[in-house]
């Protein structure tokens, strides 16, 4: 199984570059597969400033499905290439010598590159190529006379591209500006504080650019000696800040130079009481404010205040900073796939200062509206799509600061078998905002219709926006309920099938009902005399009028009284004069509008003070007009009455948001007739107050209200969405929780922000299981997750009822769970005198992750004192050595598994007894498994089946014993009739005897009795050896290891002639085979040459136990694999089995045990064997016939 060939070919186009990612889009349909790679720019041309005759390269690199053709445009026309101007192989434009001649020969202008492939074309942003220029000095420094200790200031101004670097010279040498007294501003201003006699001289400025260097005329600084008497002087600002307009990221300098005695202190603030950005702002010299990397939020009115220390004497100066910003998108068009005859709708919104202009391009060419294609409110709508509409569309936003483009692809899906159009469309008005639309199903191919699309738009006006609603095919009526009241709308219906759409239905027009006004008019208040107020108002915008206004209601009262007077005026009036009022009194006025449906909401009270009765020569009220420029800026314009003869010194401007504190006054010159107030909040109502003043008194004031509009809308929202949180970081905290942290986006003011966290496992199919969490912090601990599972996280923020897009997704995996159980199968074995081997298996559970094991061991004395020794092993290890153990102690061992989350429980304690060396030849240390450690017992727990087996075995054993007793009685009678024969011993054998004999006769009798009993009771034993009968082996093992025997045949001693046995007895019993075994090898030794008395149970069990254990040894737990990655050799495995069997046998029971001892284990000992006399003892003490000896190298 695989993708279709066409898709496989498309998948090869994926390209990742350092700047962006080329995506491949694939569309499936019953008719085939379409795919294309998006065409995009890797590099676009940038603005460039060059000197004449210098070369320049304008970058342009595009990526997409090859071949790609690059074409260059200059001012909208194709660039004519020649030897001086041509396109490089990577698509960039190269100009070897830039010409600056006027007319067509000049290379200056706006350049764009056009990239074209088979899917369409895209146009780059504009690049402005200009020549470096510098003008003559517009302002030259002027000579000044300054009193010693005063302030000297020189100014020069010059226009240059790029901006010139201005430096200063005194007496034609470079002026050192490193002194605190001297400040040289980048704007071309030189300030010298605390002037001294040595500062006198000729000063000039030098302006330098990449193209030229100019020097100004010289100005002389004369220093006048200071008088001894220094009288008090109020502060005066001799050079205040000037209104300035700056582009984004430039540096702004606001100058403020003040004099006074004592020396005044200069401080800065904003008129709107917002804090000044301390990160991008600093003070130069003695009070100049520099804002570096200026941003939109830096726009506003800045106030310089000079204050005499310790007094209330101060003066202020203000300037407005306007920041221009290039366009930037807040909503981008998205690629669409539409059927033929369908409708495509592209949305695009941008912001910038000034507001950018939006235009649309199709394959790099500007689109013009026609019957099918419409552009309105930054949207592009294509109705009744045809195959030629398949193209790449671009939204271009541009203003004086630059341009920016965003692209989207429209793919048209073809289908020939389309349904006919719906018919009999009719509409019915339901309310002021709702109309019911109904229709009949298509007459042709109605069974193939999967949906209907309802289209509607306002009927009045041109280029109105068209809206679309898609509904299912199970209905033929729909209520549109988001319409404007008192408006005519046009409707039509389109039927859709999977790969096509019908023609448009017939258009119908219907009118909505009226409603009450949504907003009150904006009013303006002025006074023509001390006893009147002229109230004027603007018509309500149609969007908020919701019908025809038929009445206005004016309400007014004195601010000191509660009695309200009401007037009702016809809807055609726009002003009214209130007369007979009190002079110098504050009146409150509000207005309400009504349609035929009823009255709307009244405006808030607007205050106005009538002039004083004595104000005969006071300036009259100016004619005020306030309009919003954008969502945060309003423009205040006024015109003074030409018939007013009163002198005007200036104007005072006040403004405030409704319900807030008033800002001002803003002092304006008499020549000013306009002012811009910025830094306002969108969708707020502001009250503006303006009055003229002169030396005698303040004039009549004019009041007006204005509402700021909403900011750029984004998909029916009034303000753009906030940016998403950034730098989302995830870290696993436990097996069920992950810690998230993210950065808060920068906002212009402090706001309450809430966040939503989306969390779900990667690959989740059930959307209902997605987890959404809320918080107001920039971090959260997400809990209740599954262990060792990968999750994906995204965060969005909510502020002022707006939600940001989701942040980029972050993936992270929870930690595994801590081990829930202990290691299993813990075993401890002594492998040397002071060293033990501990082994185990990992804890149960397939999902358990172990990174480390902790082994605790201690002697009983240390355990009582709470002192454990600790060992750590990696998770891949399942064994460890316990070294430096002290003989004579019993050690306790337990093990726990752990990982990065935590440690699991410890296993049950396992005991290991390390016996003293002097008892080592008699018995081996006892070894316990963890399953036996709870009782520390050497006995097995017997169940009912085991007890039944034991009873049957005992019965059989008793029967055998009875038979043996009868045979012994019979044989003893036979021996009494025969004479005893002495046993001869060689000199070599007697030299190795460990016990002296009382007499030769007694020795002969003892040996003879032992031999006879051994021969009669042990048919499988040959002399001082026994046969390893497991698996039918013929191997003979004596007390020192395996021996090689001559041709030996099995004999049943019960039925053998007694004399013959006695004759052969010495040769068989004293076989000489001494083995010098290797260290750490295990051998079997029979230390007692004589079994117990005939009456003991063990003597009769030997022949049967050998045969029985032959199979049992292969299935016993001791012989099973340990699961320790095969690290136990056969040798150590056998040792463990023998130890466990020996420890499980009661001490009073003596019998032979045939174990799984192969030749591989014994071969090291055999390799160094030599002949040696065989020692034997007549000690009749009942000891275990077989013991395990570990030879330790000395």
Entry keywords:
1194 residues; mainly beta; seven-stranded antiparallel β-sheet; six-stranded mixed β-sheet; 10 helices; 90 strands; 10% helix; disordered N terminus
Summarize the structure in short.
With 1194 residues, this protein is mainly β.
Description:
- It contains ten helices and 90 strands.
- With 1194 residues, it is mainly beta.
- It is 10% helix and 41% strand.
- Helix 6 packs across helix 7.
- The strands form 25 sheets. Strands 57-54-53-66-65-62-63 form a seven-stranded antiparallel beta sheet, with no helix packed on it. Strands 6, 9, 10, 13, 14 and 15 form a six-stranded mixed beta sheet that branches. Strands 17, 20, 21, 24, 25 and 26 form a six-stranded mixed beta sheet that branches.
- The two termini are 70 Å apart.
- Residues 1-36, 713-718, 919-941, 979-1037 and 1044-1194 have low confidence and may be disordered.
- 28% of the residues are buried.
Tell me the strand percentage band.
35-45%
Q: Which range best describes the helical content: under 10%, 10-25%, 25-40%, 40-55%, 55-70% or over 70%?
A: 10-25%
Q: What does the radius of gyration come to?
A: 54 Å
Number of alpha- plus pi-helical segments: 10
Between the first and last Cα atoms, what is the distance in angstroms?
70 Å
Structural class: mainly beta
Average pLDDT reading: 74
Number of DSSP E strands: 90
- Indicate the overall shape: extended
User: Which stretches are poorly predicted, pLDDT < 50 over at least 5 residues?
Assistant: 1-36, 713-718, 919-941, 979-1037, 1044-1194
**In order across it, which strands form the biggest sheet?**
57-54-53-66-65-62-63
Largest sheet: 7 strands, antiparallel
Membrane topology: Single-pass membrane protein
Transmembrane segments: 947-970
Region (Disordered): 1110-1133
Domain Ig-like: 37-130, 135-222, 235-322, 327-411
């Amino acid at each position: 199984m695989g993708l279709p060939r066409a898709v496989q070919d498309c998948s090869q186009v994926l390209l990742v570059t350092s700047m962006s990612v080329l995506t491949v889009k694939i569309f499936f349909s019953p008719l085939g597969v379409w795919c294309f790679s998006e065409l995009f720019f890797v590099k676009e041309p940038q603005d460039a400033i060059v000197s004449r005759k210098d070369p320049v390269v304008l970058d342009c690199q595009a990526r997409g499905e090859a071949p790609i053709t690059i074409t260059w445009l200059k001012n909208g026309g194709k660039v004519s290439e020649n030897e001086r101007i041509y396109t490089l192989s990577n698509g960039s434009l190269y100009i070897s010598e830039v010409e600056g001649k006027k007319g067509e020969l000049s290379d200056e202008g706006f350049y764009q590159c056009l990239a074209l492939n088979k899917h369409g074309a895209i146009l780059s942003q504009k690049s402005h190529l200009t020549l470096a220029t510098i003008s003559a000095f517009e302002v030259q420094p002027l000579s000044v006379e300054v009193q010693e200790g005063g302030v000297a200031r020189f100014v020069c101004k010059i226009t240059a591209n790029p901006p010139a670097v201005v430096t200063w010279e005194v007496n034609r040498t470079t002026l050192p500006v490193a002194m605190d007294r001297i400040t040289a501003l980048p704007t071309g201003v030189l300030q010298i504080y605390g002037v001294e006699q040595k500062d006198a001289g000729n000063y000039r400025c030098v302006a330098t650019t990449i193209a030229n260097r100019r020097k100004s005329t010289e100005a002389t600084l004369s220093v006048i000696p200071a008088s001894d008497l220094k009288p008090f002087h109020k502060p005066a600002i001799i050079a205040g800040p000037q209104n300035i307009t700056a582009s984004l990221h430039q540096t702004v300098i606001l100058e403020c130079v003040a004099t006074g005695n004592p020396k005044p202190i200069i401080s800065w603030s904003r008129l709107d009481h917002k804090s000044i950005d301390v990160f991008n702002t600093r003070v130069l010299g003695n009070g100049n404010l520099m804002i570096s990397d200026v941003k939109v939020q830096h726009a506003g009115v800045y106030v310089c205040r000079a204050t005499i220390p310790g007094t209330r004497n101060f003066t202020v100066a203000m300037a407005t900073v306007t920041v221009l910003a290039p366009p930037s998108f807040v909503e981008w068009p998205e690629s669409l796939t539409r059927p033929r005859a369908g409708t495509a709708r592209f949305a695009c919104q941008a912001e910038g200062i000034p507001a950018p202009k939006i235009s649309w391009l199709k394959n790099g060419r500007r689109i013009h509206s026609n019957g099918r294609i419409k552009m309105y409110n930054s949207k592009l709508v294509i109705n009744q799509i045809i195959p030629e509409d398949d193209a790449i569309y671009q939204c271009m936003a541009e203003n004086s600061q630059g341009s920016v483009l965003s692209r989207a692809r429209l793919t048209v899906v073809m289908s020939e078998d389309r349904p006919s159009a719906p018919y009999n469309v009719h509409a019915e008005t339901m309310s002021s905002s709702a109309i019911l639309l109904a229709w009949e199903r298509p007459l042709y191919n109605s069974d193939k219709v999967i949906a209907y699309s309802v289209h509607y738009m306002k009927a009045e006006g041109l280029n109105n926006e068209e809206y679309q609603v898609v509904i299912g095919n199970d209905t033929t009526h729909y209520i549109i309920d988001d319409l404007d009241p008192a408006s005519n709308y046009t409707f039509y219906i389109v039927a859709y099938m999977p790969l096509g759409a019908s023609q448009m239905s017939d258009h119908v027009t219907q009118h909505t009902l009226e409603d009450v006004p949504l907003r009150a008019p904006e009013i303006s208040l002025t006074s023509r005399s001390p006893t009147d107020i002229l109230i004027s108002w603007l018509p309500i915008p149609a969007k908020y009028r919701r019908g025809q206004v038929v009445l206005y209601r004016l309400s007014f009262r004195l601010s000191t009284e509660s009695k309200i007077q009401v007037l009702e005026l016809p809807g055609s009036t726009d002003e009214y004069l209130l007369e007979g009022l009190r002079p110098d009194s504050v009146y409150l006025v509000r207005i309400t509008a009504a349609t035929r449906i009823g009255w709307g909401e009244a405006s808030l009270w607007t205050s106005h003070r009538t002039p004083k009765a004595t104000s005969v020569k006071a300036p009259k009220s100016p004619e005020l007009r306030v309009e919003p420029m954008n969502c945060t800026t309003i423009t205040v314009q006024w015109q003074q009455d030409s018939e007013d003869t009163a002198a005007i010194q200036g104007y005072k401007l006040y403004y405030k948001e409704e319900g807030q504190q008033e800002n001002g006054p803003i002092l304006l010159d008499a020549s000013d007739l306009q002012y811009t107030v910025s830094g306002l909040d969108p969708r707020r109502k502001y009250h503006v107050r303006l009055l003229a003043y002169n030396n005698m008194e303040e004039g009549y004031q004019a009041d007006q209200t204005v509402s700021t509009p909403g900011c750029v809308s984004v998909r029916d929202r009034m303000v753009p969405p906030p940016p998403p949180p950034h730098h989302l970081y995830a870290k696993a905290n436990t097996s069920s929780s992950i810690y998230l942290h993210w950065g808060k986006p920068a906002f212009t003011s402090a706001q309450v922000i809430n966040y939503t966290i989306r969390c779900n496992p990667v690959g989740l199919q059930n959307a209902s299981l997605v987890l959404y969490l809320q918080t107001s912090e920039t971090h959260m601990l997400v809990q209740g997750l599954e262990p060792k599972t990968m999750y994906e996280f995204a965060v969005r923020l909510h502020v002022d009822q707006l939600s940001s897009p989701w942040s980029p997704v972050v993936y992270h995996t929870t930690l595994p769970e801590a081990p829930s159980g202990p290691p299993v199968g813990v075993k401890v074995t002594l492998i040397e005198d002071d060293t033990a081997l501990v082994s185990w298996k990992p804890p149960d559970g397939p999902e358990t992750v172990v990174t480390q094991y902790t082994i605790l061991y201690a002697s009983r004395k240390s355990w009582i004192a709470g002192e454990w020794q600790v060992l750590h092993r990696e998770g891949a290890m399942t064994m460890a050595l316990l070294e430096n153990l002290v003989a004579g102690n019993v050690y306790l061992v337990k093990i726990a598994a752990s990982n990065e989350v935590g440690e699991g429980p410890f296993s049950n304690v396992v005991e290991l007894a390390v016996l003293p060396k002097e008892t080592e030849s008699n018995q081996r240390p006892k070894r316990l498994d963890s399953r036996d450690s709870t009782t520390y017992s050497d006995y097995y727990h017997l169940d009912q089946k085991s007890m039944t087996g034991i009873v049957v075995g005992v019965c059989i054993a008793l029967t055998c014993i009875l038979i043996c007793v009868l045979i012994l009685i019979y044989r003893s009678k036979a021996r009494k009739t025969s004479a005893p024969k002495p046993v001869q011993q060689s000199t070599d054998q007697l030299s190795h005897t460990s016990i002296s004999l009382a007499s030769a006769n007694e020795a002969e009798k003892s040996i003879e009795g032992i031999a006879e009993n051994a021969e009669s009771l042990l048919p499988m034993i040959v002399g001082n050896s026994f046969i390893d009968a497991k698996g039918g082996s013929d191997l003979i093992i004596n007390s020192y290891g395996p021996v090689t025997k001559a041709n030996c045949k099995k004999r049943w001693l019960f039925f053998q002639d007694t004399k013959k046995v006695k004759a052969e007895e010495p040769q068989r019993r004293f076989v000489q085979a001494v083995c010098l075994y290797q260290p750490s090898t295990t051998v079997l030794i029979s230390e007692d040459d004589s079994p117990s008395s005939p009456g003991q149970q063990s003597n009769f069990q030997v022949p049967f136990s050998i045969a029985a254990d032959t199979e049992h040894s292969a299935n016993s737990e001791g012989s099973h694999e340990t699961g320790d990655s095969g690290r136990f050799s056969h040798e150590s495995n056998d040792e463990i089995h023998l130890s466990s069997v020996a420890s499980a046998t009661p001490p009073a029971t003596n019998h032979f045990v045939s174990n799984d001892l192969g030749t591989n284990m014994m071969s090291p000992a055999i390799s160094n064997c030599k002949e040696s006399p065989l020692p034997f003892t007549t000690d009749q003490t009942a000891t275990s016939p077989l013991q395990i000896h570990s030879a330790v190298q000395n």
